[in-house]
Design brief:
263 residues; alpha/beta; TIM Barrel; 8 strands
Length: 263
């Protein structure tokens, strides 16, 4: 089966640079995939992307060695299994708040006896190889999002679920849940301490920790802390910021950017 470069990097202590796709276009996915990201995540939760478009994006990413990951809309086994069958090599699942939810998520990603994923890897076998059915459980990545006060309280139970490969911090929802305000690249000492708590728990369990960030400077700080998966910005934000820079140079001022957001 085709190797999962993200897992290979984690095994030697490396940090993965992940790009984020929200624009519903195979062309933008292919363009992003050719820029050197270690992995690209198709955002089906907050992005503007449906199933058929996501399949085309997976095909576009496959023109490179970038690892294709999907953030599914919710912890629902049907869409999880469809995206794995379509060739996603990792699933990020939002709003995992308990051990039971983490178990249900991991189970949907694993074939029996480790889980309850249905057999039918229609495109995944073409992308991954003829031995996909026997090697997928060891190759496909499961990442549970930690992004609420409840998840923080239950983080040790969540990360101890067998078959969970990593956790992924959603900073906007986490800060909203804890403080009532949305923050992304944290400066608040209390929120930074929360990141340390989650990271420490993941490291103690021996699984990777990831985080969504807005700027490369903050992402670099997170890698130095020990995070092994950092997302920086998104395709839509990169288009917006690039356009704003040109308009500002030509006209002296562009429209005001959107409120603080990683998207």
């Amino acid at each position: 089966m085709r190797a999962n470069k993200v897992k290979d990097m984690w095994q030697v202590g490396g940090a993965v640079l992940n790009g984020w796709l929200q624009i519903p276009s195979a062309w933008s996915a292919e363009l992003m995939a050719n820029q050197g990201w270690d992995s690209l995540t198709i955002d089906m939760q907050h992005g503007l992307i449906g199933y058929e478009t996501a399949v085309h994006q997976l095909q576009a990413i496959s023109t490179t060695d970038t690892v294709p990951i999907v953030r599914v809309p919710w912890n629902e086994p049907g869409i999880i299994m469809k995206m794995l069958d379509a060739g996603a090599y990792g699933i990020i699942c939002p709003m995992i708040n308990s051990r039971a939810e983490a178990e249900a998520f991991v189970g949907a990603c694993r074939y029996a006896p480790e889980g309850y994923r249905s057999v039918g890897p229609i495109r995944a076998r073409v992308y991954g190889g003829d031995d996909y059915g026997t090697a997928a459980n060891q190759t496909v990545i499961t990442m549970a999002m930690i992004e609420t006060a409840a998840a923080l309280e239950n983080v040790e139970d969540i990360i101890s679920v067998p078959g969970l490969d990593a956790i992924y911090i959603g900073p906007a929802d986490l800060s909203l849940s804890l403080t009532g305000t949305v923050q992304v690249d944290y400066t608040d000492p209390d929120l930074l301490a929360v990141l340390d708590t989650i990271l420490g728990a993941a490291q103690q369990q021996g699984i990777a920790a990831g985080i969504h960030t807005k700027a490369p400077e903050f992402a670099t700080k997170m890698v130095k802390k020990g995070f092994q998966f950092v997302t920086v910005s998104s395709d839509s934000s990169l288009v917006q910021s690039g356009a704003q820079a040109i308009v500002t140079k030509m006209k002296g001022k562009a429209n005001e950017p959107a409120a603080d957001s990683p998207y």
